[in-house]
Amino acid sequence: MARKACDGAGFLAAFRAAVANLEASVDEINALNVYPVPDGDTGSNMAATVRAALAEGDAAGPSAPVERVASAISFGALMGARGNSGVITSQILRGMAEGLATKTRFTGPDLAHALAKGSEAAYRAVARPVEGTILTVIREASAAAVACADGDGDLEAVLGAAVDAAEKAVAKTPTLLAILREAGVVDSGGQGLFRLLQGAQRFLQEGSGTARKSAAAPRRGGTPAAPARQASTLVAHADEGFGYETMFLLQARPGASLDLDAIRTHLEGIGESVLVAGDPRAIKVHVHNERPDLVIAYGLALGALSRISVENLDGQVHDVRERRAGEFTRAEAADEAPVAVLVSGGMTDSPGGAMAGPDLEPGGRSVATDAVPGSSSAPLHLAVVAVVAGDGLEAIFRDFGVTRIVRGGQTANPSTGELLKAIEATNAREVLLLPNNPNVILAARQVAAMADRPVEIVPTRNAAEGFAALLALDPTRGAADNAAQMTDKARAIQTLAVTEAVRDSSIGGRRVKKGQVIALDPDDGLVAVDNDAHRCVTAAVATLNPGYELLTIYYGDGAGLADAEELAHALGGDGRVEVQVVHGGQPYYRYLVAAE
Fold it and tell me: What is the pLDDT of residue 518?
């Protein structure tokens, strides 16, 4: 008999099963990283986030009502969120907790409402939402859940509808994002969300005695087996039945206005992956279906069309699948580095308190503090907290007088809670936070909204941008004034990150083979690829905008001082540009190059 409702204990058990299913799929999700760099950590970040959420849920107790369990899970996810994928997951859980407020038990319609609230919260958390990501997956999963609930679906049916829609949405992500299509993978965050929902569904099915055959192997001994479906299979599944992609700009007739909700509803009735964006005067339409003529005819009935595009997705995705089949190589799982919060010299800070001794974070990551000798209890006006990976880079930030350093970066993104503790441990009225990594920026912004004092984010994408930003710091001004000028200074320099590809891939139309050296710009655009590291860097530097006077080479994993000096000699041989070599010690990236 299908389950009609769920209490707090059942909700917690279902969430535990969801976490276990995600944990069993971490390697699969990490391997879906678009870029062939050794830092594919979406699965690790999501797993760390939901483990922290589960720990808080468990602390609420087995007899707690649904409302309390959901609230605890939301708080745990918020504090334990790591990386962009973890932050978005935490927002989904936050929205669901809002949807389940006041509930001691919940039914199918309640779950559908909670998922819809989770989707809304996730979209609100991202300044510029991108379709073909985890956002698309939660939106389509929640829409399917609501549709099922409107049709009198019970709890199990609603969750089943969400899981089915999530799987289909994941499979379609390559058709929405060209970068996924080119790399031959589906969206990793979306796949992680599907695994979470799938784990909860299994619990409901097995608990009610109606377990059905699923995409992954059945559980044995209470532990979910590794999923049988591989990433390449998911991409192959993505080419089934998408038909045509139709896009156009629709402008209202003079004196008339466009009803976006009505247009969206109509298009959802004749197609899928519907996007309608704009205002009553003009909108952009995107839809997938088998009859583009019907979509265009509908648009013509409403107004004037321009920028019309019709593409055969079946043929396009088939070609991509054939080209990429057999080329996918999983990235080896990297050991998760510990995170430590260290107090540097150069600026006074207040030791002691809750941060004076070691503290254990969810997932076993430790946070420790070291007091600054001779520090004063007088509060600072302004403090700087920086996220840093690499002993050499950390030493440089300390020399700059950074108040606190949070160890972390690629594959070791600090959690929201760790960043918040570092901020709260500063004895300052205002704080500037330098994430120094694109995958930490979203968590940093989330922390800024939670802190007990003004916190401004300087969205630095690597350590070199962080150093440039600190050169613009004016300690006599407030955090808000400093953040703007520091961001401008950070963006004024040019940087390159050099690493080794861990699998075959294609970036920007260029083929990359496992083991080749690649140079990437701060936005992860491929700049150069070569079998030789020095040739790769030389080619990448040649693409930089002219006019810079200094090149700094920070050498890390895979490079020694002699290698770096030899590279510097080659780059500065003509004497027109000064080249300096600095030990960075950064993991995974052989060189970080800055031009200024």
Answer: 94
CB 574 within 8 A of CB 382: no
Does 109 or 223 have the greater pLDDT score?
Answer: 109
Distance CA 66, CA 77 (A): 16
State how many domains the chain has: 4
Domain extent at residue 310: 244-324
Supply the CATH number for residue 388's domain: 3.40.50.510
Q: What distance in Å separates the CA atoms of residue 518 and residue 514, rounded to the nearest whole number?
A: 10
- Is there a contact between 173 and 187 (Cβ–Cβ < 8 Å)? yes
The verdict on 184 and 251 lying in the same domain is no
Q: Could you tell me the CA-to-CA distances from 454 to 92, 418, 445 in Å, in that order?
A: 26, 17, 12
Contacts of 4 (CB under 8 A, 6+ apart): 107, 108, 154, 155
**CB burial of residue 189 (10 Å; 0-12, 13-18, 19+):** buried
Burial of 175 per CB tally in 10 Å (0-12, 13-18, 19+): buried
Per DSSP bridges, beta strands 359-360 and 366-367 are: antiparallel
For residue 211, the Cα-to-chain-centroid distance in whole angstroms is 32
542, 510: one domain: yes
Q: Tell me what the mean pLDDT of segment 270-286 comes to.
A: 74
Ramachandran class of 159: left when φ > 0, alpha when ψ lies in -120 to 50, beta otherwise: alpha
Tokens of 243: 């038909």
| More confidently predicted of 236 and 352 | 236
Q: Write the single-letter amino acid at 189.
A: G
470 shares its domain with 557: no
Backbone Cα Rg of the chain? 25
Contacts of residue 216, Cβ cutoff 8 Å, sequence gap at least 6: 21, 24, 25, 198, 224, 225, 226, 227, 228, 229
Q: Dihedral of the CA atoms 354, 359, 362, 363 (nearest 10)?
A: 160
CB atoms within 10 A of CB 205: 18
| CA angle, 83 then 431 then 411, to 5° | 20
546 phi, psi to nearest 5 deg: -70, 165
SS3 324: helix
Residue 124 lies in a domain: yes
- 80-84, 140-144, 273-277: the lowest-pLDDT one: 273-277
Instruction: Read off the pTM.
Output: 0.64
Residues 400 and 422: beta-carbon distance below 8 Å: no
C-alpha dihedral sign at 102, 163, 275, 148: negative
Q: Given the DSSP bridges, would you call strands 526-530 and 550-555 parallel, antiparallel or unpaired?
A: unpaired
Give the pLDDT of residue 42.
Answer: 87
- The sign of the CA dihedral 436, 438, 443, 446 is positive
C-beta separation of 117 from 95 below 8 A: yes
d(CA 401, CA 343): 10
Separation CA 134–CA 46 (nearest Å): 12
Which pLDDT tens digit goes with each residue over 165-182? 999 999 999 888 888 887
CA gap 444, 459 in Å, rounded: 9
4, amino acid identity = K
Question: Which helix (H) or strand (E) element contains residue 560?
Answer: none
Vertex 176: Cα angle to 172 and 177 (nearest 5): 115
- Number of CB atoms found within 10 A of residue 322's CB: 12
For residue 234, being part of any structural domain is answered with: no
3-state secondary structure of 424: helix
